[in-house]
Specification:
7 helices, mainly alpha
């Protein structure tokens, strides 16, 4: 019995136990899974961060685009309302005024404070629309009166009064229209003047730099001690001539620009 037990003990020692092998494989597999999980989590984290950055950069652009689309739709709706409310002729005049206001507000003169802070024409535009609306209402009324047939003495008098009121209303509206458009033209002229001043300043700066360069070439050469042989005099003169011509050409180009 003892020999048999020793043999069994020796057999167990020399052979691997299946259960222990499975536990070892599972442990190694677990270690490998943990490493892979970390890589996956890091990848997901990076993707999320990049996605958030892209989203945060895209959102303001999308918001501005949406606001522009809403503004365009609102302006188109208002335009259609003015045509229905005022008629195509009066509405076209209002559109031209609104376009002039936009040009004025976008001008450099307005953006840089040359026109001050108070160039809101909302009150004027409302007054123009109101005058045109009243003029259209009176025009429709006298058209209806004329459609009744030959005008009697009382009809003719009121027709003339209505026509005179229409002319006065249109004159008052057109006066404001001309004023707003004149402001837009003046803003454009200021922009042109500012642009010319910048060009003149740049040209003056370039001219001064070129004059300095020319003086340095001419008078600096004269102040240099004459240590060269006499035979080099012609070369020195030609060098001055070429330098002078070069600088004069640069000045000419600067003036032309």
């Amino acid at each position: 019995m003892s020999d048999r037990g020793a043999k069994l003990k020796s057999l167990r020692t020399g052979l691997a136990i299946p259960g222990e092998d499975r536990e070892s494989e599972m442990g190694m597999s677990g270690d490998s899974l943990d490493g892979g999980t970390v890589i996956i989590l890091l990848t997901v984290g990076v993707v999320l961060v990049v996605g958030l950055l892209v989203w945060s950069a895209w959102m303001p652009i999308a918001r501005r685009e949406r606001e522009r689309e809403e503004q365009t739709a609102r302006e188109e709706e208002e335009k259609l309302w003015r045509i229905a409310f005022l008629g195509s002729q009066y509405a076209a005049i209002v559109e031209s005024v609104l376009a002039a206001v936009k040009r004025l507000q976008a001008s450099e003169a307005a953006r840089t404070g040359w026109l001050g802070d108070d160039f809101d024409f909302t009150v004027d535009i409302r007054a123009i629309i109101d005058k045109f609306q009243q003029a259209r209402a009176l025009g429709d009324a006298i058209d209806d009166l004329s459609a009744l047939g030959e005008l009697g003495p009382g009809d003719a008098e009121i027709w003339c009064d209505a026509k005179a009121s229409i002319n006065n209303l249109e004159a008052a509206a057109h006066k404001r229209v001309r004023l707003i458009k004149r402001c837009a033209r003046e803003a454009r002229l200021i922009d042109k003047s500012l642009n010319e001043e910048r060009k003149d300043a740049l040209t003056a700066q370039q001219r001064a730099e070129l004059h300095g360069k020319l003086r340095g070439m001419l008078y600096g050469a004269e102040a240099t001690p004459d240590t060269a042989p006499t035979s080099a005099a012609a070369d020195a003169v030609m060098a001055r001539v070429l330098a002078y011509r070069e600088v004069k050409e640069l000045i000419k180009k600067a003036r032309g620009s």
